[in-house]
Write a structure and sequence with these properties.
Elements lengths: L22 H6 L2 H10 L22 E3 L2 H4 L9 E5 L4 E7 L4 E6 L4 E6 L5 E5 L5 E6 L5 E5 L4 E5 L5 E5 L1 E2 L2 E2 L6 E3 L5 E5 L20 E5 L6 E5 L5 E6 L5 E6 L7 E8 L3 E10 L1 E2 L3 E2 L1 E7 L5 E6 L7 E5 L5 E6 L4 E7 L5 E6 L2 E6 L9
Antiparallel strand pairs: 1-26, 2-29, 3-4, 4-5, 5-6, 7-8, 8-9, 9-10, 11-12, 13-14, 14-15, 15-16, 17-18, 18-19, 19-20, 21-22, 23-24, 24-25, 25-26, 27-28, 28-29
Length: 367
């Protein structure tokens, strides 16, 4: 593991003071009325001073309550913070509870960055990084990564050695592994949509040789098995809190883009594919989800983008699929994870930046 000197983010820019909701108005309107007001007005996310020099009046207007079901998760006296900016396409945030740091990828720059909780310092964690996209940690604290450039899934051992978990299927190279999660039984599940070989910006341009699919690496034998290939572009994925369901983002195909849900059978196979939610949003268009995570109550927190202001950021869905809240960002949100000492801090990778906000829930899994 190589750590370089501190990276200094670009100097902050000056912005006009953000528009905020008057506190009396916030408290007086009903949740439904508030949601309608938030959808009708321009989002202040692009206007606020993300350098932190001009504070945001509480409660943060960019943490949006769309349903009373989300109100309990919004912390009234906290704000969304931009922790770093200066990447080209930020992805794959993963929280190390032992190291107390947030790791994420800057895919085009072929590096992984690390934000330290104690002083907010950002440094290069690994470079080159195989144009890595998704990252996570397993139950032994080892980092796992999906590499676009090398078209493989790897595990970094405590010794510093690199173990290749998967790089071929049916005798042909994987497309470009994208995102991954670990199961308590040690199995590693990952998606392979092929975005990393569609051009040279995030990997090396090449043709798809196999269909886009979802795979599982068996913890005992190391054998690779195909668990789903019914989606156009399987992207972000996460388990339900009890690991009995797997949620999968389909970021390809026609609009509106969906998040699918499957039943997990014997911890190894998937059955009963069905639509969980559509990412279309009335009045805001049809963007797409990317990375997703579950909280302890079974809500699904989806990084979202490609539909503009008032849509881009994070969408929160209740277990029954109702969209109950949003966290609006001035950039497309690519991925997210829960971290911090209590797993109640949501870290979000935007196009060029890293953001964080405290919420009144906890991540269901280790990262």
């Amino acid at each position: 593991m190589t750590t370089t000197a501190r990276i200094s983010p670009p100097p902050p820019q000056s912005f006009d003071p953000p528009r905020v909701l008057d506190r009396r108005r916030f408290l007086a309107v009903t949740t439904t009325g508030f949601a309608a007001a938030m959808l009708a007005r321009p989002s202040p996310a692009a206007e606020r001073d993300w350098s932190g020099h001009i504070p945001v009046r509480y409660p943060d207007p960019d943490v949006v309550v769309l349903s009373p079901r989300f109100a309990k998760y919004k912390v009234g006296d906290t704000a969304i913070q931009r922790l770093y900016t200066g990447t080209l396409w930020a992805e794959g945030p993963a929280w190390s509870a032992v190291g107390r740091y947030l790791l994420w990828s800057d895919i085009p720059n072929d590096r992984q960055l690390r934000w330290l909780e104690d002083d907010g310092r950002v440094s290069v964690f690994r470079q080159p990084a195989g144009n890595s996209n998704g990252n996570t940690f397993d139950f032994q604290g080892r980092q796992l990564a999906c590499e676009h450039g090398n078209r493989r899934v790897v595990r970094y051992e405590h010794s510093g050695a690199v173990t290749v978990l998967a790089d071929r299927w049916a005798g042909k190279p994987l497309n470009a592994p994208n995102d991954l999660v670990v199961h308590p039984d040690g199995g590693v599940w990952f998606t392979d949509p092929g975005y990393g070989i569609m051009g040279n910006y995030e990997g090396h341009k090449a043709d798809l040789q196999i269909k886009e699919a979802v795979y599982r690496v068996d913890p005992a034998s190391g054998e690779l098995s195909l668990v789903a290939d019914d989606l156009h572009k399987p992207n972000g994925l996460c388990f339900s809190p009890d690991y009995r369901k797997l949620y999968l983002v389909d970021s390809g195909g026609p609009d509106p883009k969906p998040i699918q849900v499957y039943d997990v059978i014997d911890n190894k196979t998937l059955r009963n594919s069905r639509r969980f939610v559509s990412m279309a949003m009335e009045g805001k268009g049809s963007g797409t989800a990317d990375g997703i995570r579950a909280d302890v109550d079974g809500n699904i927190w989806a990084a979202a983008g490609w539909a503009g202001a008032g849509y881009d950021g994070v969408h929160i869905f209740a277990p029954d699929g109702e969209r109950i809240g949003q966290i609006l960002l001035p950039e497309i949100c690519s991925n997210l994870c829960f971290g911090g000492a209590k797993r109640n801090r949501l870290f979000m990778t935007g196009s060029q930046s890293l953001y964080a906000v405290y919420v009144e829930t906890q991540g269901a899994h280790i990262t």
